[in-house]
């Protein structure tokens, strides 16, 4: 079973408040991925957007497991009609147990009240997109709008259970963004997997891209023209996007099951200890943490034997 | 001092447009802004005489001037400024009001608006000597050669304006033209035998030539501004200690000469005496002397609590203690210290041996994380366009993060350059002329490692083609009073090339001999004759012939080269891969081999060959690029990857090390280096690289601490490996490689 450090922290918090509950993860269904590279306008942007979409498509398709559906629209295919059709298809197929990830690469515009995603032919506005998205019943949804002015779409996209990541903080940040480049990089760079659990969550990818974007402007000694935002860090931290290793095999041996249970307990203790760090003597904290980590390592060794 | 893309010259401020100190009188009404001197009219004898001022205006003006002279606080000066505004409104055609208002603005540090008002006054009254005098003073303060034009115009209108002679004398002094400076000072003294600046000029000439100056100094009497004039010129000639002494005299003569207090503070700070510096600056500021230099310097000093100081002792007991002092911003101290300290020690050891000179005082290097802080440190103003400056034994320089990554700022070249100044200035007791200390410093940048330093760039090529290089006898002028925008940069390069040529023809030892000769306060002409046994004109001829041999092809072919390189880049950019790309690129390399900047043919050819699968060919092109001094990180990492995959990991490390001298704060670079170090069993180096990586505080905490753990383990430092493994796992408890490492170094992996 894979753990998210955020989930564990939340669990530790609730444990301390007396509301302990199981940290067993609900069984998830399939994940539907739709990536759209919109209108570039200039050859340079066209090429860049298509390349990012192609890379994303490739990485997602190479993911282990068959519990995913990947579709990508780019170039001349990224029309409003085809986008509507793709979203309609997902709406017809996805179930509440499924997850849905919608990624937009390209340019956006904002006229002060309405955001539009630029496509070859007619554009599509945020409210129009929201209508289509809201028909998808997947209970876990992630929208990553990496276009310029994408912050202007947030209000329209808001929905319970939906995480929204935008490359800009508002519709007034209108310059072409660099966030998309680093988001896509996060899906393949092991450095993005900061908790080293062989999976990159939406939050990890977001933080990676956010840091790289900031560094891009700092290195060039330019004022940043984009500031990305994530709507819900907690849920983004549990939304796995890609895995870099095989999924943990199910443990059937009763002895090993005991070890797995023990491992979870140790991990809980580690989270609880971290929660108390600020209140503890540093050397005492270190001593206890060391003991727990050693124990965890030995337990994992035993599981793998 | 290390050159920059623009400007240079200690004291070369230019007109401070846009830099306005706090609490100044309000800006002048909108006026036609003029570039320095560009719209200054000539006097017009046939122009009608200006109408006399109206009596009520004259009375109001007198009252304002009385108020002005009684003003003490910024608010007082503001009130006077408002008064001038009202007068201007009431009488917009009076030139005199404009001139007086401009005088106030100039005094209160608003040179840009002062200039505008003087020029407006001249439009109304082309024969207003006061306006010309105001401009002459403004331009002289900014080292603008138009000062001479303005001063001469004032003299044409009124030959008795002895201060104009003084300004001309000052400019000649700054050009090291002592004969002319004395002549102009004498002209001023003929009109006014007690002209204090003229006396100061004579005193300065004696002092700069190490001759007795008491007779002239005593004539200054108790006029503080006279001592301050001497101090200013001494500082311009880098005689900071002597300058400080004369600013003290100025204050002793006139304790309320706040400008002197401010300059004393600035110069004490240059010498690293921060406590007293702060006290002087505070005193000036609290008495209304709130110019940009004073304000900015005080603000900068507030940030010094964020710096960490590292020292190391002299190897010998009779050496200065400490030998070296390194100050780094605490945000990057951990990452930069290993490299800066190592290079500082290496440079000092090299110069001690090469110049045969041991420092008698500690050498201090301050590395500024923000370019504006460095600018304030050096000139009291941000945005000075310099990279490094030396004040005797104190070096201040831009840190790597103060420049954009695209610049490929080579901090190590700057450090070696500035440290060379420390030695040559100390060896000559501050007598070395500006051009020669710069020349030696530029020469030293690439003397130790050839791909350091700056290369022949298009600006230099243009100057060579247009025959803008100076005779060796006049080299100082190119630094202090440049006559075209790029002359300072060209002068740096020329000075360096002259020293390269001297070494090539006469040897390293001769360069040191020349340094010692300058210590005797000899002129450039005398030193060249004495040391090289050649007349300056003959030297120029031989030097230019050697330069022609080295650069002739690039100079002659530059226009065509530029066109062809542009075409080549266009072809590549449009996604084409012309079959003759490599051939065309290689031809361009032979015309102008030193060009390794954006769009250079080496990288174009290398990338094309790599894309075509010709790794050996690509490596050969990248090798040329690296050898000449290319500094694009992406290219060099590509080159290093090719070297590593071909089995030559040591060469890969060397290639990446070149980039440490430009991008020491790049996490990816340290990670690559660290991994290669481990693969080649350079374990101590791996520890350094991964420790720096951790200090850079990357987002991937678990990964960076795990790498450091690996390096400690390889280096036999098991306890430290354990600690780092724990830190990695604290960030990512499930991190399997770190878990395995922890068990290994704890002896709990079951293998023991």
Give a description of the structure.
The complex is a heterodimer of chains A (305) and B (752). Chain A is α/β, with parallel strands linked by helices and 305 residues long. Chain A has 10 helices and 11 strands. Chain A has a 6-stranded mixed beta sheet with strand order 2-1-3-7-8-10, sandwiched between helices. Chain A has a 3-stranded antiparallel beta sheet with strand order 4-5-6. In chain A, a hairpin with a 4-residue loop joins strand 4 and strand 5 (115-117). Mean pLDDT of chain B is 90; it is low at 1-35. In chain B, helix 7 (162-174) runs antiparallel to helix 8 and helix 9 packs antiparallel against helix 10. Chain B is mainly alpha-helical. Chain A binds chain B through residues 3, 5, 47, 190-192, 194-197, 207-208, 211, 218-221, 267, 270, 274, 286, 289-290, 293-294, 296-298, 300-301, and chain B through 401, 403-406, 575, 698-703, 726, 729-736, 738-740, 742-743, 746, 748-750.
List key phrases describing it:
heterodimer; A: 305 residues; six-stranded mixed β-sheet; 10 helices; 11 strands; 16% strand; disordered N terminus; B: 752 residues; mainly alpha; 35 helices
Short description:
The complex is a heterodimer of chains A (305) and B (752). Chain A has 305 residues and is an alpha/beta fold.
Taken as a percent bin, the fraction of beta residues of chain B is: under 5%
Give the tally of β-strands of chain B: 5
Nearest-integer average pLDDT of chain B: 90
The helix-strand sequence of chain A is HEHEHEEEEHEHEHEHEHEHH
**Based on CA inertia axes, which overall geometry of chain A fits?**
globular
* Total number of strands of chain A: 11
Secondary-structure-based class of chain B equals mainly alpha
Radius of gyration of chain A: 21 Å
The main sheet of chain B comes to:
5 strands, mixed
Rg of chain B, Cα atoms, Å: 30 Å
Unreliable spans of chain A are 1-27
Total number of helices of chain B: 35
Indicate the structural class of chain A: alpha/beta
What is the number of helical segments of chain A per DSSP (H or I, 4+ residues)?
10
- Across the major sheet of chain A, the strand order is 2-1-3-7-8-10
Low-confidence stretches of chain B: 1-35
What is the share of helical residues of chain B? 55-70%
What would the average pLDDT of chain A be, to the nearest integer?
88
């Amino acid at each position: 079973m894979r753990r998210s450090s955020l989930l564990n922290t939340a669990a530790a918090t609730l444990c301390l408040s007396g509301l302990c509950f199981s940290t067993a993860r609900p069984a998830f269904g399939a994940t539907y991925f739709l990536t759209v590279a919109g209108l570039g306008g200039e050859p340079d942007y066209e090429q860049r957007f298509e390349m990012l979409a192609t890379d994303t498509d490739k990485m997602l398709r190479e993911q282990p497991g068959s519990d995913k559906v990947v579709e990508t629209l780019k170039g001349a295919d990224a029309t409003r009609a085809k986008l509507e059709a793709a979203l309609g298809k997902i709406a017809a197929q996805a179930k509440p147990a499924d997850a849905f990830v919608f990624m937009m690469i390209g340019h956006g515009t904002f006229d002060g009240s309405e955001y539009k995603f630029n496509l070859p032919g007619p554009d599509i506005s945020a409210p129009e997109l929201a209508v289509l998205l809201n028909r998808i019943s997947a209970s876990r949804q992630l929208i990553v709008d990496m276009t310029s002015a994408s912050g202007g779409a947030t209000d329209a996209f808001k929905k319970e259970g939906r995480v929204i990541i935008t490359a800009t903080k508002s519709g007034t940040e209108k310059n072409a963004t660099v966030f998309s480049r680093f988001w896509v990089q996060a899906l393949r760079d092991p450095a993005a997997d900061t908790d080293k659990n062989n999976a990159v969550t939406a939050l990890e990818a977001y933080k990676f891209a956010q840091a790289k974007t900031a560094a891009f402007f700092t290195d060039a000694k330019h004022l940043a023209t984009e500031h990305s935002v994530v709507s819900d860090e907690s849920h983004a931290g549990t939304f796995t996007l890609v895995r870099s290793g095989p999924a943990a095999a199910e443990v059937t041996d009763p002895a090993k099951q005991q070890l797995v249970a023990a491992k979870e307990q140790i991990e809980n203790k580690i989270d609880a200890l971290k929660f108390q760090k600020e209140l503890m003597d540093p050397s005492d904290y270190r001593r206890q943490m060391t003991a727990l980590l050693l124990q965890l390592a030995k337990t994992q060794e035993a599981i793998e034997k | 001092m290390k050159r920059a893309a623009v400007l240079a010259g200690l004291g070369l401020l230019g007109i401070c447009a846009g830099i306005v100190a706090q609490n100044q009188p309000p800006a002048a009404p909108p006026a036609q802004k003029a570039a320095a001197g560009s719209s200054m009219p000539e006097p017009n004898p046939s122009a009608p005489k200006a109408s006399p001022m109206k009596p009520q205006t004259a009375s109001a003006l007198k009252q304002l001037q009385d108020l002005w002279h009684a003003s003490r606080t910024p608010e007082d000066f503001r009130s006077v400024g408002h008064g001038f505004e009202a007068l201007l409104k009431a009488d917009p055609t009076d030139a005199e009001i404009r001139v007086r208002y401009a005088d106030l603005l100039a005094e209160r540090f608003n040179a840009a608006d002062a200039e505008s008002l003087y020029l407006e006054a001249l439009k109304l009254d082309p024969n207003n000597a006061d306006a010309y005098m105001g401009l002459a003073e403004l331009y002289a303060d900014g080292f603008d050669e138009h000062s001479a034009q303005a001063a001469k115009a004032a003299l044409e209108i009124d030959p008795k304006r002895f201060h104009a002679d003084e300004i001309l004398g000052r400019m000649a002094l700054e050009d090291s033209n002592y004969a002319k400076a004395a002549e102009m000072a004498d002209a001023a003294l003929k009109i006014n035998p007690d002209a204090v600046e003229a006396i100061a000029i004579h005193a300065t000439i004696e002092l700069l030539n190490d001759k007795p100056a008491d007779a002239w100094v005593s004539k200054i009497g108790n006029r503080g501004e006279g001592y301050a004039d001497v101090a200013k010129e001494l500082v311009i000639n880098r005689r900071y200690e002597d300058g400080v002494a004369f600013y003290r005299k100025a204050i002793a003569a006139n304790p309320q000469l706040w400008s002197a207090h401010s300059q004393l503070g600035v110069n004490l700070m240059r010498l690293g005496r921060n406590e007293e510096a702060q006290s002087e600056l505070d005193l000036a500021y609290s008495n209304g002397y709130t110019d940009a230099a004073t304000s900015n310097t005080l603000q900068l000093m507030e940030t010094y609590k964020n710096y960490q100081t590292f020292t190391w002792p002299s190897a010998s007991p009779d050496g200065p203690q400490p030998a070296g002092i390194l100050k780094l911003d605490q945000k990057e101290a951990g990452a930069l210290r290993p490299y800066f300290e190592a290079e500082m020690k290496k440079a000092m050891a090299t110069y001690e041996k090469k110049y045969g000179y041991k420092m008698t005082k500690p050498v201090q290097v301050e590395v500024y994380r923000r370019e504006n802080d460095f600018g304030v440190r050096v000139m009291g103003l941000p945005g000075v366009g310099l990279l490094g400056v030396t004040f005797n034994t104190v070096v201040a320089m831009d840190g790597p993060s103060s420049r954009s990554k695209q610049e490929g700022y080579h901090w190590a070249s700057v450090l070696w350059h500035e440290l060379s100044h420390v030695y040559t200035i100390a060896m000559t007791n501050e007598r070395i002329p500006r051009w020669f200390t710069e020349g030696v410093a530029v020469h030293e940048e690439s003397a130790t490692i050839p791909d350091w330093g700056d290369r022949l760039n298009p600006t230099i090529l243009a100057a060579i083609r247009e025959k803008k290089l100076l005779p060796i006898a006049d080299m100082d002028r190119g630094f202090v009073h440049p006559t075209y925008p790029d002359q300072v940069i060209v002068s740096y390069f020329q000075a360096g090339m002259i020293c390269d040529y001297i070494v090539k023809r006469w040897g390293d030892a001769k360069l040191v001999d020349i340094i010692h000769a300058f210590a005797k306060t000899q002129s450039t002409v005398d030193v060249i004759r004495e040391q090289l046994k050649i007349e300056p004109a003959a030297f120029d001829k031989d030097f230019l012939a050697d330069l022609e041999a080295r650069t002739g092809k690039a100079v002659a072919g530059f226009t065509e080269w530029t066109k062809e390189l542009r075409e080549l880049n266009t072809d590549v950019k449009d996604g084409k891969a012309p079959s003759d790309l490599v051939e065309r690129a290689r031809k361009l390399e032979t015309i102008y081999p030193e060009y390794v900047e954006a769009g250079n043919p080496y990288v174009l050819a290398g990338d094309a060959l790599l894309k075509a699968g010709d790794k050996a060919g690509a490596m050969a092109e990248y090798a040329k690029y690296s050898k000449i001094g290319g500094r694009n990180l992406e290219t060099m990492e590509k080159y290093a990857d090719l070297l590593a995959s071909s089995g030559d990991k040591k060469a890969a490390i060397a290639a990446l090390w070149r980039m440490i001298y430009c991008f020491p704060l790049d996490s990816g670079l340290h990670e690559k280096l660290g991994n290669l170090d481990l693969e080649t069993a350079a374990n101590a180096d791996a520890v350094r690289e991964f420790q720096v990586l951790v200090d850079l505080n990357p987002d991937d905490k678990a990964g960076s601490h795990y790498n450091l753990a690996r390096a400690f383990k390889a280096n036999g430092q098991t306890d430290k490996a354990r600690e780092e493994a724990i830190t990695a796992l604290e960030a990512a408890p499930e991190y399997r490689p770190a878990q395995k490492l922890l068990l290994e170094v704890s002896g709990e992996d079951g293998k023991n």
